[in-house]
Design the sequence.
């Protein structure tokens, strides 16, 4: 059975959990191994899904379940990473299933870190839990977690494959796989591991590392469309698509790259707006709705901190319908609104540490720490919207007059004007480039809705009027038509990369 058949059987025809185990655990591997002749790959994949299902049941997640799942992941991933000659034959998995395996792996690591963090100040629920924690201090080791994900990318040679594919697209030549011996499953795992490394770095507060980890994935082009190769695999899994854009955008926000974040969020929101109701009455609908709400709140923060950046008209209408009042309050300096939207849109950060460490070591609450870092930036810009509003009223005005409006002396006011210039200066990627330029690269550019300069003590002000790009509009519509045409003709699943 190929990946299309596996996808149709598991996702459409036979939902075993919902039909027979909605509120109970799946049968153990001991109970099913005789039915499959003790097939090791099957049992490891079955165990992974069994543990994943156990996490969805009501009630607290036990330490023993987390340790059991970790042991199974180690066995499964070690088997995946064996050489092509030693590796047993695995079934052809759909791309969505390969993504879910790695996504759940990172989620359980996140859950483990949060549980261990709680136990720094609270005793374990039972003596058995304490014994398990003390006997398994290396379980869910961050080095091992990152090691598995990076090894998938290395063994699959996915970056070399994608660089070659990008080169072929630029030259207009036929795409050929430079590593035909790499199996389809390993390419999927290598690709999605890069997405999960981006997610992990974001959860740890390493925003530069998060952006560098996805350099090979072109998320910047507004005219991006599915070409059927490895570079666009994230487009084949809706959860991966929005997950990637969400964590990329959040890293850009925390790196003070609001223009890039607005562009990333716009792409994510356009995708969600167009496809969400396609998944109506499916679990994916609720997931996309959640991502939509988070992205909108993050976009509201960006628009408030960078009012000079342009936003797609469709998304802008959607944004102001939902958060118009919030944006108005943030423009007036309401810090509590910034705090509320940030808390509701930020991921659940994690703190790496071992059980038994002193509560005084490191940062106890990483979420609170990241919020303080964000609010520090907000406070630095607190007075800038008022100055900007004064500037829009004049073409020329003496510095001392504006200083009197602000009830400050001329020297302090000049510092505020320099601060306005500095905060309007951002590093921006070339969003129209078709080449894979690093997300950490870019050129510094002023992004503000008013432009001013000083001539002695006189301020000269020019209002910046953005010209409509009609050519870009038509290109967008042409690409939308091509995407719709491809969606109509596309196969059930994109897992069969390069015809494998």
Sequence:
């Amino acid at each position: 059975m190929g990946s299309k058949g596996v996808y149709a059987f598991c996702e459409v025809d036979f939902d075993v959990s919902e039909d027979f185990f909605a509120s109970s655990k799946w049968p153990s591997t001991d109970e099913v191994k005789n039915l499959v002749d003790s097939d090791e790959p099957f049992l490891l994949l079955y165990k992974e899904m069994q543990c994943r299902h156990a996490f969805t049941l009501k009630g607290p997640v036990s330490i023993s379940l987390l340790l059991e799942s970790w042991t199974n992941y180690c066995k499964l991933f070690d088997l995946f990473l064996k050489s092509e000659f030693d590796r047993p034959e695995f079934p052809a998995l759909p791309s969505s299933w390969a993504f879910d395996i790695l996504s759940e792996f990172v989620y359980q690591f996140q859950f483990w870190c949060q549980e261990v963090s709680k136990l720094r100040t609270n005793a374990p629920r039972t003596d058995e839990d304490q014994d398990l924690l003390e006997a398994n201090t290396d379980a869910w080791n961050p080095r091992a977690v990152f090691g598995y994900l990076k090894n998938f990318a290395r063994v699959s040679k996915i970056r070399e494959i994608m660089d070659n594919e990008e080169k072929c697209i630029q030259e207009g030549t036929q795409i050929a796989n430079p590593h035909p011996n790499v199996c389809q499953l390993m390419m999927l795992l290598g690709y999605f591991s890069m997405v999960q490394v981006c997610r992990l770095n974001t959860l740890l507060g390493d925003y530069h590392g998060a952006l560098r980890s996805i350099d090979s994935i072109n998320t910047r082009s507004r005219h991006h469309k599915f070409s059927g190769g490895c570079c666009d695999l994230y487009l084949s899994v809706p959860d991966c698509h929005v997950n990637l854009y969400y964590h990329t955008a959040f890293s850009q926000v925390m790196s003070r790259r609001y223009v890039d974040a607005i562009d990333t969020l716009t792409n994510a929101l356009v995708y969600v707006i167009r496809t969400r109701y396609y998944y109506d009455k499916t679990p994916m609908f609720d997931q996309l709705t959640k991502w939509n709400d988070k992205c909108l709140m993050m976009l509201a923060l960006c628009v408030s901190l960078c009012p000079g950046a342009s936003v797609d008209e469709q998304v802008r209408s959607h944004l102001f319908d939902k958060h118009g009042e919030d944006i108005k309050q943030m423009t007036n300096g309401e810090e509590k609104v910034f705090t509320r939207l940030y808390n509701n849109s930020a991921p659940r950060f994690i703190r790496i540490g071992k059980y038994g460490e002193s509560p005084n070591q490191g940062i106890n609450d990483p979420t609170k720490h990241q919020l303080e870092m964000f609010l520090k930036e907000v406070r630095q810009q607190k007075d800038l919207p008022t100055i900007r509003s004064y500037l829009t009223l004049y073409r020329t005005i003496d510095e001392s007059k504006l200083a009197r409006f602000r009830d400050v002396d001329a020297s302090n006011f000049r510092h505020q004007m320099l601060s306005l210039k500095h905060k309007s200066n951002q590093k921006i990627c070339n969003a129209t480039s078709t080449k894979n330029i690093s997300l950490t690269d870019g050129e510094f550019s002023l992004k503000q809705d008013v432009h001013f300069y000083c001539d002695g003590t006189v301020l000269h002000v020019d209002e910046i009027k953005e010209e409509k790009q009609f050519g870009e509009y038509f290109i967008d519509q042409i690409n939308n038509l091509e995407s719709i045409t491809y969606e109509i003709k596309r196969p059930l699943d994109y897992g069969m990369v390069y015809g494998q």
In short: The longest strand covers residues 450-455.
